Amino acid sequence: MKQIIAAVFYLVLFSGTAFSQSKAIPQSWKLGTSTILLPDMTPATLAEVKQSGIDYLEIGWKGPLVSGTPAERLTFARTAYQDATRAGLVLWSTHIPYGKRLDISETDPEKRPAILAAVKEYIDLAVEMHVKQIVIHPSTEPIADEDRPKRIAACRESLKELAAYCKAKNASLALEGLPRTCLANTSKEILQILDGIDGVGVCFDSNHQLQEKPEEFAKAVGPLIRTLHISDYDAVNERHWMPGRGIINWNNVIAALIAAKYEGAFMYEVVKKEGDNITFKDLAPNYETLKKAWAAQ
Q1: What is the dihedral sign for C-alpha 73, 76, 78, 80?
Q2: Could you give the 3-state DSSP secondary structure of residue 267?
Q3: What global pTM score does this model have?
Q4: pLDDT of the chain, 297 residues: tens digit per residue
Q5: Closest C-alpha to 104, from 59, 67, 63, 134
Q6: Around Cβ 2, how many Cβ atoms within 10 Å?
Q7: Which of 110, 109, 105, 168 is nearest to 136 (CA)?
Q8: Signal peptide span per the entry (predicted)?
Q9: For residue 251, how far is the Cα from the chain centroid?
Q10: CA of 128: how far to CAs of 59, 80, 91, 95, 122, in Å?
Q11: Which of 75, 125, 137, 264 has the fewest other C-beta atoms within 10 Å?
């Protein structure tokens, strides 16, 4: 199976590059991973993460903490920062939890204040963790076509308030492009949502584009990109596979990011599925393969 994946990997990587510009990947693109790929956040595990070649982390909030108390979340945030710092890791980003309780596109004006209050708690926790970027989803799903305009309007109103809150906290908010019927499912729509809202950037997730190629999305939003979620897919649905397993032309994606002058972490968001034997230790070799393929053009 690994041999087949490797063969597909090189076929995709060398199948042509529309945006080739440089032979060197920017030095600022330090390797990172979402904590969803880690077995835990103990000091011993974090030390192994650093030793594996990973420099940056994105903190994901697991269910027990999301359903826990504010005090428990605050303790986790402070401990995560302390333990990561001791291990030599940088907390680059955090992902605000998502779901109906945190859906910033909620159109009911009576429900939205509680939603924004909950989101602001996670922004405060991000500040406690000294992260560089805060990733937020624009909506849940499904969204019917006839409901889309009012959901976009509600999302924009929420983002205006959250942008002001982040500015006061000296925090950076990044709206994630999403798949299927979610809001921001195309580059055109995410630009529409963000139009005129200062202070909010984009989280480019390479496996969420179902209506355009990932590199087309990245090229369109360009300098708005503040952080990444790197993984592969089949263009049928999001998969969060290891790069090389799916259909993405990584040379094209890298070229688009260089053209956008992206300078942040190269943050993987690979999800281990049933039957997979991948771990965080596979990320550094995978990233090296991407860099070698880019340099070999």
Answers
A1: negative
A2: strand
A3: 0.91
A4: 444 445 445 444 444 444 444 467 898 899 999 999 999 999 999 999 999 999 999 999 999 999 999 999 999 999 999 999 999 999 999 999 999 999 999 999 999 999 999 999 999 999 999 999 999 999 999 999 999 999 999 999 999 999 999 999 999 999 999 999 999 999 999 999 999 999 999 999 999 999 999 999 999 999 999 999 999 999 999 999 999 999 999 999 999 999 999 999 999 999 998 889 999 999 999 999 999 999 999
A5: 134
A6: 8
A7: 105
A8: 1-20
A9: 19
A10: 12, 10, 11, 14, 10
A11: 75
Q: What is the C-alpha to C-alpha distance for residues 206 and 229, in angstroms, rounded to an integer?
A: 6
| SS3 call for 95 | strand
Whole-angstrom distance, CA of residue 219 vs CA of residue 77? 34
60 by DSSP, 3-state: which? strand
Backbone angles phi and psi of 277, in degrees to 5? -120, 20
Measured distance CA(205)–CA(217) in Å, rounded:
10
DSSP state of 87: T
- Alpha-carbon Rg for the chain in angstroms: 19
Closest to 221 measured CA to CA, from 249, 247, 183, 195: 195
